Amino acid sequence: MAQQEPVTSTVEDGVAVIRIANPPVNALSAAVRGGLLRAAQAAGADPAVRAVVVAAEGRTFIAGADISELGKPPVPPSLPEAIAALESLLKPVVAAINGAALGGGLEVALGCHARVAAPAAKLGLPEVKLGILPGAGGTQRLPRLIGAVPALKLMVAGDPVGATEAKSLRIVDEVADDVLSAAKALALRLADKGRPTPTSARQDTGERDAFEAAAAAMLKKGADNPSIAACVDAVRATFDKPFDEGMSVERAHFLRLRDDPRSKALRHVFFAERAAARIPGLPKGTRPRPVAKAAVIGGGTMGGGIAMSFANAGIPVTLIETSEENLQRGLERVAGNYATSVKRGSLTEEARDKRMGLIEGKVGLEAAAGADVVVEAVFEEMGLKKEIFGKLQEIAKPGAVLATNTSYLDVDEIAASTARPGDVLGMHFFSPANVMKLLEVVRGKETSPDALATAVELGRKLAKVPVVSGVCYGFIGNRMLARRTAQAERLLIEGAMPEEVDAALNAFGFRMGPFAMSDLAGLDIGWRIRQATGKKAPVADALVEAGRLGQKTKRGYYDYSGDGRTGTPDPEVRAVIERVSAEQGVTRRAIPQDEILERLLFPMINEGARILEEGIAARAGDIDTVWLNGYGWPAGTGGPMFHADSIGLPRIVARLRDFAAASGDESLQPAALLVRLAEEGGSFAALDEKAAA
Length: 693
Ligand code: 3H9
Fold this sequence. Notes:
The protein is α/β, with parallel strands linked by helices. 51% of the residues lie in helices and 11% in strands. It is built from 29 helices and 17 strands. The strands form three sheets. It has an eight-stranded mixed β-sheet, sandwiched between helices. Helix 17 links the parallel strand 16 and strand 17. Helix 11 packs across helix 25, helix 19 crosses helix 24 and helix 22 crosses helix 23. The chain is globular and about 90 Å long. It binds (S)-3-Hydroxyhexanoyl-CoA (3H9). The site of (S)-3-Hydroxyhexanoyl-CoA (3H9) has 25 residues, from helix 3 and helix 11.
């Protein structure tokens, strides 16, 4: 079958309608850019054409440049050229924005002489999220259309606005249900009146002082983000320079940022997140089960947060507790969280009432009977979980997905306590569950394909980033975290102080180091796990025994006696650490920051390689997605496995061997997969590409 042209043009009542059809999201591939340019030229030359409309097929208008092309040699025509061809037409050109107009998609619309948007359309310049800046005139045309300050705000935030807001910002001229008809009508009216002045020919972009003040605030807040500085510089050019010179400023920044490793990493993050939602090995035709109603067992912090996630997505949910008293406490916590959002202004009272209205509290497991998905979120105790799943087998309706929110326990053992193990899987949310994006979906050996597909699709509906993990202790994220935690403790014993270890990770881009994190979560959590597994961490254990549980006791690895949240180094902690070093016969030494960083990150990468070779994760990109969305890994370095590729696998292998030799800890020996890839000159990215092919 011949492939359909991605850009077609028909003349309807004197209007040339240029239609873009490049599924799934009408990205501006070379074929689309070429098609747009030719269609613009043809419309200009055709005497039967009085006006032009740029429209698109499908649910989006245009989702921007084709992100996968950004790393490849450019193919002409460039997007700025295609847009210039539209804007320079002497006939009016109107964009009919039926759905998302993002990045280059909005830039195409800005090159048109007027814009009509559907009520559900979203318009934005998300380039900063990809480590670049708008590169097809967005930094020059948007300020000329709506003023420099609102334009800069939009491109620095990177979040889209809805059609109504776009209208009030004057980005769009009309909002209409039938965008195509409205755009055609507007185009003909403009043809009667005479074509409007192209945006690029306008010069007034607002008050310079107001712009400089807004820019200074944004630069301060985003000091570590080179895209923001580039946006400011390019928008500033709209005050000083004519359009063409401003375009050159924009282009120079765009090319520099596009070729920077940071943008490469952020583009990897974009595709890795989307690939993670594809489950390998599902039989063809597997369909997710419908989910109209949910139940959450356990009204603690985790259960309450999970119930909020359902309500936030518009799914009615029953929160189940063992007693009226516990239930009330759980519901009050949920209400309190919503109240905080209302107070902060991030949620309207109306939305809050609607969400609270979707959460029903009930005592007793029987209340799970009507749910299509049941999420158990009780204590991490195997016996208790098995008892609950045993009862759910009778109570839950046939076909309901039965999920456990366990962070560590064996999902197969839990599944074995029911006669319907095919319905059982893990849905591991991260705290606070209503906020954190990551959802590890744990696939048991008996989990049925459609139950798995249901959990992944549900995850996306809950606005989470789902990643499938096999069964192992700690799944993908916590299993790797355990390696870092062990090294952090060892570094203390060998000579570092908590603030030095945390500083190394902060400098790398983590907002919190392991010890600040531990103080926030509570040292008792790790201590309880060590008690259950018979493991020891002499420094952490000594701190817990001294009653230092973290922020909640105002003392942990740091002292919080000031405002309760800001930790300062504590001589008592130093004394404990030095005592443990002495007890272990370790001569303390100064450990450089780069060594601390390698000691923390390389064993995690090594564990990631083991997770891959065991098939616990399907792709290296899945591991990156876990760490980016659940553990605060800095996006600009792409995640642990992408970072490993950037460093070079031979170096990681060599350093792991050094660490193993120095410590005698054989678990630090490099994984077989890591060694093989290093020897072959391979990479985790190439491994993923091979798996996808
Ligand atoms: C830019 O425009 C630069 C210019 O300023 C300058 C140029 C000179 N390219 O997200 P979904 C794929 S930079 C390539 O699951 P949704 C995506 O990978 C660009 N592919 O759907 C997925 O593929 P698969 C600025 C893209 O409904 C499929 O489409 N624009 C692109 O949840 C469905 O995607 C952006 O940053 C793309 N631009 O959300 C917008 N976009 O099925 C990026 C999507 O094989 N896109 N794909 O996994 C989005 O934000 C969302 O995709 C959108 C739809 C909201 C449009």
